[in-house]
Structures are given as structure tokens and as C-alpha cells.
Give the backbone structure.
Amino acid sequence: MFSRIREYLVLKNYQYEVTTSLYMLEPWEKALFNSLVIVGLGLLSYTTVFYLPEQLTYVATRFAEYISFY
């Protein structure tokens, strides 16, 4: 069971490295790139959690106003 999960994770890591061309970088370059990816995903998650509900409310209000005119 654990070996299948490990094989799956190794395969996904390989696919990630090949897709983003990380396989040809040195370890410190991989770490830097992966750090930037993690920071970017963290910022995206933060803005999604804190700003998306407000924006959806705004869009829904504007949409309701638009429909009420017709």
C-alpha cells in the first residue's frame, strides 16, 4: 500500500520537474524556484479567501440591479 503511494508521489514529482524543466537545475535553483511557487500560491490563496467573497457580493449586487431594470 505505502509503496504504491510512494511510487505515485515519485511519478508526480518527476512529471512536475519535467514539465517545469526543473530536472536540469541545481538543487539550490530548484529550492529557489519551488519557494517562489509556494509563495505565489500562498498569496493567491490569501487573496482568494479574503477578497473573493467581497467581490462576489459586489458582482451579485450589480447583476441584481442590472436585471431589475429590465
